[in-house]
Amino acid sequence: MISIVIPAIIWGTVGINVRLLSKQGLEPFTINFFNMLIGSFFIYYFARYKGRRVQFKHNASVTKHLILQGIFFGLTVILLFFAFIYTSISDASFIQQTMPLWVMVLSALFLKEKITPRKILALLFAVTGVYLLFQVHIASTSYTGDFLALLSSFTFSGMILNGRKLKDTSEYTTRSE
């Protein structure tokens, strides 16, 4: 239960922390750098605690997808952090969480996955919900922040689709096992 609650609290306060840190003069790039640095240390020590070694031996295909994964992840976080600054935290979070919609559409286009009638119905409900939500907030929203959150959602989708190429790669190493 603790392994669910603690990350949920951390993730739930990201927007607030970014907004507070930006008011103190830190840029989203700086905030993201320290987030990734601290996270890397935790992952490294957690892997060692679990008895796993972090290795950097892998083939060219895995290397390509790991680099692409890093680019997608970095863009996702940076765009979301800027969105938190330019629009409300709730709007930025909500728009960014439309990612599953884009994964469904992009996986059909790029991975040739089948879109079933059930998926189409879910897509229509989700798009209707997004539309209705923004009809209420349209007067107070920032189009710049909303657009950045939408871009973050697209890069998040790219990360999910690219991650499918890394499904056989250990979460503790960068080498296929």
In a nutshell, what does this entry contain?
The protein contains eight helices and no strands.
Helix-strand blueprint:
Elements lengths: L1 H11 L1 H10 L4 H22 L10 H27 L2 H8 L2 H12 L6 H21 L5 H21 L14
Helix pairs in contact: 4-5, 4-8, 5-8, 6-8
Keywords, please?
177 residues; 0% strand
Give the rounded overall mean pLDDT. Answer: 83
**Rg measurement, Å:** 18 Å
Structural class: mainly alpha
Extended strand count = 0
Identify the overall geometry.
Answer: globular
- The separation of the N and C termini measures 29 Å
* Poorly predicted segments: none
Measured as a percent range, the helix fraction is over 70%
Reading the helices and strands in chain order gives HHHHHHHH
Measured by DSSP, the beta-strand proportion falls in under 5%
Task: Characterize the biggest β-sheet.
Answer: none
Helical segment count: 8
Description:
The chain has 177 residues and is mainly α. Helices cover 75% and strands 0% of the residues. The longest helix is centred in the middle third of the chain and has 27 residues, at 60-86. It is globular and about 50 Å long. The model has no long low-confidence stretch (mean pLDDT 83).
